Amino acid sequence: MPSTELPLDVKLMTVVTHVLVVVFAVLSLGLFATWLVRHPVWTVKAITVHGDVVHQNAVSFRAQLASQMKTRLSGSFLTVDLQQVRQLFESVPWVRKAVVQREFPNRLRVTLEEHQAVAWWGQSGSGQLVNRLGEVFDASPDDSDGLPELAGPREKSAEVWSLYQLLGAELARLDMGLERLELTERGTWRARIDSGASVELGRGTPEELLARTRRFTGTLTQLTERYAGAVQSVDLRYPNGYALRLRGVTTVTDTPPPGTTRTPR
């Protein structure tokens, strides 16, 4: 049979029809998707908070976040920006980390991790605290009794906290508490124990500073038995000993064995 070819105008009409059908289908799907996303069933109805909430509760969260929540949750359950919600919760005092998840069909689940304060940063009552990871955060504790002071460049806070734990454990052997540990701008370390005595530690690695402290704690009992008086200051920067000032008398130990003393004339 002889082949028949459609006229050009018919071919064009067929192509245009196919294109229009596809465009209509795409637009219809888009409109349906928009309607579906905006349907009231997807409106975020509730936010449940779990995890560490010792310093916060539903009432305090509502008071602090209510106005911002309206803006952040303006979309639907399907389109809400979880990253923004996470940042919003992490802006609340005491909240270290927030994990935000969707719970079908219209809830958000927020799991919180709170800071656990272990020390003041700078001075007591400064409004800055250090947590168990050595991170500095802004907050005021409900009960600040017994919190030591840590100080130094903020980026070194984890290093200061780590050394505090080493030296604190060593001093505790003599029932001495470490009240303050500071890393100065010059890179030297100084401390204050709970009796009010100041301690110059100098420079060095944590291991070197711990060794100097052990030299002090290992011989202090011998010295206090020999010389009456409370410890006023200690200088541990000597290579083979330390200088100790007691109230009313000064002793210096600088030769082995540890505990050998001489009093300046």
Proportion of β residues? 25-35%
Give the number of helices.
Answer: 5
Name the quaternary structure.
Answer: single chain
* E-strand count: 13
Overview features:
alpha/beta, 13 strands, disordered C terminus, 5 helices
Give a written overview of the molecule.
- The protein has helices at 8-38, 58-72, 82-90, 157-171, 206-226; strands at residues 46-51, 95-103, 107-114, 117-121, 128-131, 136-138, 149-151, 178-183, 189-193, 198-202, 231-235, 242-246, 249-253.
- With 265 residues, the protein is α/β, with parallel strands linked by helices.
- The strands form two sheets. The protein has a ten-stranded mixed β-sheet, covered by helices on one side. Strands 1-3-2 form a three-stranded mixed β-sheet, with helices on one face.
- Helix 2 runs antiparallel to helix 3 and helix 4 packs parallel to helix 5.
- The longest helix has 31 residues, at 8-38.
- The protein is elongated and about 120 Å long.
